[in-house]
Amino acid sequence: EAVRRVLLLGEGNFSFAASLCGAAGTHVVATCYESEEEVCGRGRAAESIRRLRERGAEVVFSVDCTKLKDYFLPEEREFDCIYFNFPHCGRKAGVLKNRELLARFFHSSAEVLTEEGEVHVALCNGQGGTPADQPRREWHNSWQIVAVAAGAGFILSNVHPFKAETMHGYKCTGYRSQDKSFCIEGALNHIFTRSTPLPYFKPMICEIELESRKVSFQVPQILADKINRGFLELNSNHPVQTVKEKLTAELNKAFPLQNIDCCLSLLHQGHLNGVCHSNIFWIILSPEESPSTEEMSNGVANAVLFSHVDFCKDTDKNGWMNVQEGCHISKQYYLRPSLLPYAQAIIQRAAFLPGTIHVLSGPVFRKCLISPYSMPVFHEVVFVCAVNRGTENSCIQMLVNSIKTSIHALHQTVSGSKLNINLQEATSFETTELNDFAAFESQLSEIQYFICMEIDTSGSCEKGSCVGIIRTELTGSELVVVFASLNLDLLAMLICGISDWRMLWTSDTRFLHQFPRGRLRLFKSFSLYPPSYVHDVSFWVPDGEQFDEV
């Protein structure tokens, strides 16, 4: 088993290091800023240093915490944990100088810390400037530790009281650079980990099968890291897959079930009635970008992406694009905004079995306004069932009961808070009350019911918390088809307490590690109190041009 390397900085009398030393599988390197002669004159320091050396720890003097890599050979720079208790520039240094010290310390720590290592910084009550401080100082009068650490690529992942009483023999010292103790009541230990680098996504080309040939197209930049992620694959432990598995298992108790395992194309062609073109990610195949002879022999056609199709076209009264003659554009495709067209196509097949629930699932793509719960991509699951005319209401009730049971079972394993799931008639909603998911679904075709979910202590279900919809469609004279569509991402967020949809798509392993295979938990954020910035933008819209907020 690998030995855990721990670096301690700014030790005053080495009593903290002595209390920590001796743990199995841990190698301690204890350092201080002063020389050995200065330190040994402090009470109990010599005794602590002797104990450290007896237990195999390294003791290093005159170490500057802002230049750590200068003190260790390259092969010795991989520390698993760095402790810096009560850093201070000394004497009567103010907040600005101490902020600068922390900033340089964090940059220096990044050069000697393992990728998954931690940095522990203990500060006196109020110094950190986070909501964990009680009372909390004004921001400008604090050390602003979260913002300072962010400058070096660190995020605050945990914060807890600094419990000096649990550390045998520990005695704080160094008040105004003297061998005097200081008040550490209410002190906090701040634990930092590395943040993932801000991603820069290169243009992504996606290859798919379309009309019996291979087609490649450039993926819109906002979706570059969200294509082919495999969250719904059988071996996935992603929360959206766990939610889907629970839903289908519960439905299978009431209905025969058939998963549609055919490959559903990412691209769709043709009109979706009522859907405005600005809500769609358009992909346009152009003969001007014709494939080379070599590519033709491999069956590959090129595609060109236009995020905003704003040339050679006008729109009809529904906002649909009409390509004018002379534009040399042959076909219009868009990234599928819904699985409903595929579900409707299934009922036309000869193999479609009345009384059986057919299950379709996969990511869908919609342009929308940006907010924590508005998603340009999410995983949709659609349940399709054909029943005899007149029995559709009992089918709907059985569907909803199964959905309720499975969601309640998932929620009980996660949280003790109250959960409400209601089936509400679509006619009871105003358009302004709908969330983005429900509003878009309402554009596709007529909806009979919304499935609403609310998790709180008030016991009420707000009309806006729609996670699913139910619609029906007549087919022939005898059968009625019931469609139930659920937003798996929104369900996972509400059940696990995830406050921003982007977290579901993160590549940070700290996210998925919280969800072992087949289990959901209340999500614990690993980035606490992140700095928040608000920016305004102003622009002019030409006269006569309709303003489109998306």
TrEMBL record:
Q: Please name the GO terms of the biological process aspect recorded for this protein, alphabetically.
A: rRNA base methylation
Q: Which SUPFAM superfamilies match?
A: S-adenosyl-L-methionine-dependent methyltransferases
Q: Name one GO cellular component term.
A: cytoplasm
Query: One Pfam annotation, family name?
Result: BMT5-like
Chain ranges of the 25S rRNA (uridine-N(3))-methyltransferase BMT5-like domain: 7-173
InterPro entries, from UniProt? aa-tRNA-synth_II/BPL/LPL (IPR045864), BMT5-like (IPR019446), SAM-dependent_MTases_sf (IPR029063)
Molecular function terms from GO:
rRNA (uridine-N3-)-methyltransferase activity
PANTHER family for this protein: FERREDOXIN-FOLD ANTICODON-BINDING DOMAIN-CONTAINING PROTEIN 1, PHENYLALANYL-TRNA SYNTHETASE
**The protein's name:** FDXA1 protein
Species this protein is from? Rissa tridactyla (Black-legged kittiwake)
